Amino acid sequence: MAIERGEIYFVNLNPVKGREQAGQRPVLVLSIDAINRLPLVVTVVVGTKGTNITRDYPTNIRLRPAETGLDLETVFLGFQIRSLDSKRFPDNAVGRASGATLKKVEDVVRYCLGL
């Protein structure tokens, strides 16, 4: 299975600690494909249903279904970045963010990291 930058998967994030996002969540792959092909980890930003986040913050990016291929509006949390073993990922992506949409996500993550 080849995981690619910009793809969106539903991944089980358990076990977690404290305020980490838990359970089955959409994650958007941020790491570059050269890393994703290695037996390392895949870096993602975690998402949640748009209805769970009633207010927009500069640390989040709200994406419409047309931008992701998902059924629901999704808010990706720029401060919830995780590196996951590729064994957590199912065989197929459920969506994809590309081009300008991926750039918006990158900008929010940069903001959260002070880059």
Q: Any guess at the CATH architecture?
A: Roll
- CATH level 1 class label: Mainly Beta
pLDDT below 50 for ≥5 consecutive residues: which ranges?
none
Sketch the topology as an H/E string, one letter per element.
Answer: EEHEEHEEH
Largest sheet: 6 strands, antiparallel
Inertia-based shape: globular
Instruction: Tell me, rounded to a whole number, the average pLDDT.
Output: 94
SS summary, helix count: 3
**Do you know the CATH topology?**
SH3 type barrels
Structural class: alpha+beta
* Spatial arrangement of strands, main beta sheet: 4-5-3-2-1-6
Spatial extent as radius of gyration: 13 Å
Number of domains: 1
Q: How many strands appear in the DSSP assignment?
A: 6
- Cα(first) to Cα(last) distance is 31 Å
Helix fraction by DSSP (H/I, runs of at least 4): 10-25%
Task: Give the percentage of residues in beta strands.
Answer: 25-35%
Give a quick set of tags describing it.
single chain; 115 residues; alpha+beta; SH3 type barrels; six-stranded antiparallel sheet; globular
What does this entry look like structurally?
The structure is a single chain. The chain has 115 residues and is of the alpha+beta class. The protein has a single domain, classed as SH3 type barrels. Helices cover 19% and strands 34% of the residues. It contains 3 helices and 6 strands; from the N terminus they run ββαββαββα. The protein has helices at 33-36, 65-68, 100-113; strands at residues 7-12, 24-29, 41-49, 60-63, 74-85, 95-96. A 6-stranded antiparallel beta sheet has the order 4-5-3-2-1-6. The N and C termini lie far apart (31 Å). The model has no long low-confidence stretch (mean pLDDT 94).
